[in-house]
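Here is a complete protein record:
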Amino acid sequence: MSKTLVITGANRGIGFAMAKLAHSQGHKVYALCRHSSAQLNALGVHVIENIDVATKDGINNATAALNNVSIDLLINNAGILRNESLQDLNTDTIKEQFEVNALAPLCLTHALLNNLSSGSKVALITSRMGSVADNTSGSRYGYRMSKAALNIAGMSLAQDLKSQGICVGIYHPGYVQTDMVNHGGDISSDEAATRLLGLMDKLTLAETGVFKHSNGETLPW
């Protein structure tokens, strides 16, 4: 059955791969991004530009463009990666990552609550780098902290939306070959998209709020 998906950060990487796959499966896709790309324009999905999810204007643009659109699956995918260490502790980039990686998905989900209904799903693309138990290498302060914050936001959303029949999935995509990591990953964007959409399709209220690797493994907090 055809569903309606909204995907942020859909102009490249994992976001584009999910948009491409969902479109090929016959779903209606709204691809949100700050600026579109040639590959996204050629895809044939509903492209919505000028969506900087870390700003009030971006959130307002998204809600206006999606007015009266019933969303089956909202995928909060947009994110950024910076690199801080104890030797180079840039608090500006730490704050930037909190705005984009943690606060923006929560604000967009809140803004689109009226577009969701019983049976809808919200997906958060996070990272195992936000796991406290899994951190054995340190550094990357802003990214780790922002993804940990996103994880707990996802758990709170799962609890708050459960009574409305809305599921929340919290997903680590794997180490994916994207621009974010200079294409140094071990799986392709297409493989990550296939895994992630498969997990989202199977998500039920029984597993809402569970932190999962795209390979299906449950990850430690």
Observations:
- The mean pLDDT is 96.
- The two ends are 34 Å apart (CA to CA).
